[in-house]
Automatic annotation (TrEMBL):
Family: Belongs to the threonine aldolase family.
Protein name as annotated: Threonine aldolase
Keyword Lyase: yes
Domain annotation Aromatic amino acid beta-eliminating lyase/threonine aldolase: ranges: 5-285
InterPro entries: ArAA_b-elim_lyase/Thr_aldolase, Low_specificity_L-TA-like, PyrdxlP-dep_Trfase, PyrdxlP-dep_Trfase_major, PyrdxlP-dep_Trfase_small
Sites bearing N6-(pyridoxal phosphate)lysine, chain numbering: K199
MF terms in GO: L-allo-threonine aldolase activity
A cellular component term, taken from the record's GO annotations: cytosol
Subunit structure: Homotetramer.
Any Gene Ontology biological process: glycine biosynthetic process
Native organism: Rhodanobacter spathiphylli B39
Cofactor section: pyridoxal 5'-phosphate
Keywords from the UniProt entry: Lyase, Pyridoxal phosphate
Tree of life domain: Bacteria
Length: 339
C-alpha cells in the first residue's frame, strides 16, 4: 500500500515525466553563469513575474536569506510577521549571518500584518535605532492568501516610509491559482520574490529569487559566500521548468481535495475543524488522543505530523489523489467512532 503523506507538500517525488526532463537537461557550470537550463529557468520566472533577473538556489531558506542580505546592511532592520517562515523557521539566518535585526509584527488572523502595526514599528532616523529598511510578507501564509487590496495598501505604506518589499512566495502559485490571477499580479507589489519549486510544484530541489539586476547581483554574491554556488545544476532546473509547465494549474486540484477533506472531517464528532485554506486543512483533536490517532493512521497507511499540540495541519499535494483523501477521511471517521 502506498503511503498517503499529508505532512507537507515538500514530500512530493519527481514524476516519471519530470525525471525524463532532468535526464535530458543541457548543463554547464552555473558559477560561471554557463548552465543553459538554469539560465532559462531564471529568465522564465523573471519574465513571468515581471522582474529583471532571477537566481536559482538550493532552498527557500537560502532564497529568503539572500534577499534579506541584498536589501539590508549590518545594523538594518526588517519588519516581518511573528509567525512568518523567514523569522521563525529559518534559524534566524539574517541575524546570524547579516547582523540584520528582525522586528516581528503580530499577524491578524487572516495572515496580514496590520498596517497600523507596521507603521508603529518603523523606527525614526536616529542613532538610537536600527535602520528600518524592509517589509517582508508571506503569501500564502499557513495556506491563507493575502487579499490583493491589502498588498496594494501594504506596498503604499512601505514606500511612503522608503522601505523595500520582499515576498516569501514559497507558495506564490497556490496563492495565484486560489485568487484566480496571474502570479505577476501578486508579485508586482514587491522588489524581490522568493518562489519554492520543491513544494506543491513537485520539483525535488530548488527555489528562485527574482528582483532587479542590482538586487539579484548582490544575492548572487551572497549565494557564493554562503556556499550555494553550484555547478551543473541544470538537471535540477529542468525539474523546475517541468514543474512550471505542468504543475501550476493543477494546484487547483490540491485545493479542491483539501476542501473536500475538510468537509468530511467537519462531520466527525471529536474533530474541531479550524479552517481550510488553499492546500491546507487545520483541525484540533483532543490532545490525549494524539498518540493513538497516530498509530491508527499509520496502520491505515496515512502519515500526518503529530507533535504535542492538538492542532494538526494536513497538506494536499501532487502525490495525494482522490483515493488517498477518501482513505484519510475514512480512517479519521473510524478512529473517532471507535474510541
Ligand atoms: C518551505 C518554506 C520556506 C523555505 O523553504 P525550504 O526550501 O524548506 O528552505 C520558506 N517559506 C515558506 C513559507 C515555506 O513554506
Amino acid at each position: 500500500m502506498e503511503w498517503v503523506d499529508l505532512r507537507s507538500d515538500t514530500v512530493t517525488r519527481p514524476t516519471a515525466a519530470m525525471r525524463e526532463a532532468m535526464l535530458g537537461a543541457e548543463v554547464g557550470d552555473d558559477v560561471y553563469g554557463e548552465d543553459p537550463t538554469v539560465n532559462a529557468l531564471q529568465r522564465r520566472l523573471a519574465d513571468e513575474l515581471g522582474f529583471d533577473a532571477g537566481l536559482f538556489v538550493p532552498s527557500g531558506t537560502q532564497s529568503n536569506l539572500l534577499a534579506l542580505l541584498a536589501h539590508c546592511e549590518r545594523g538594518d532592520e526588517y519588519l516581518v510577521g511573528m509567525d512568518a517562515h523567514t523569522y521563525k523557521f529559518e534559524g534566524g539566518g539574517a541575524a546570524v549571518l547579516g547582523s540584520i535585526q528582525p522586528q516581528p509584527i503580530v499577524h491578524a488572523d487572516d495572515g496580514t500584518l496590520p498596517l497600523a502595526r507596521i507603521e508603529a514599528a518603523i523606527k525614526p532616523v536616529d542613532p538610537h535605532f536600527a535602520r528600518t529598511r524592509l517589509l517582508a510578507l508571506e503569501n500564502t501564509w499557513h495556506g491563507r492568501t493575502l487579499p490583493l487590496d491589502y498588498l496594494v495598501a501594504a506596498h503604499d505604506v512601505a514606500r511612503s516610509h522608503g522601505l523595500g518589499l520582499h515576498l516569501d512566495g514559497a507558495r506564490l502559485f497556490n496563492a495565484a491559482v486560489a485568487c484566480g490571477v496571474p502570479a505577476r499580479e501578486i508579485a508586482r507589489h514587491f522588489d524581490t520574490v522568493s518562489i519554492c519549486l520543491s513544494k506543491g510544484l513537485g520539483a525535488p530541489v530548488g527555489s528562485v529569487l527574482v528582483g532587479s539586476h542590482a538586487l539579484i547581483d548582490k544575492a548572487r554574491r551572497w549565494r557564493k559566500v554562503t556556499g550555494g554556488g553550484w555547478r551543473q545544476a541544470g538537471m535540477l532546473a529542468a525539474a523546475g521548468m517541468h514543474a512550471l509547465d505542468h504543475h501550476v494549474t493543477r494546484l487547483a486540484q490540491d485545493h479542491h481535495r483539501a476542501e473536500y477533506l475538510a468537509g468530511r472531517l467537519r462531520e466527525v464528532a471529536g474533530i474541531d475543524l479550524l479552517g481550510q485554506y488553499t492546500n491546507m486543512v487545520f483541525i484540533d483533536v483532543p490532545a490525549e488522543r494524539l498518540r493513538d490517532l497516530d498509530v491508527h493512521l499509520r496502520a491505515a497507511g496515512i502519515r500526518i505530523s503529530i507533535g504535542y499540540l492538538p492542532t494538526l495541519r494536513l497538506v494536499t499535494h501532487l502525490d495525494v489523489d482522490d483515493d488517498g483523501i477518501e482513505r484519510t477521511a475514512t480512517a479519521f471517521r473510524e478512529f473517532f467512532a471507535r474510541h
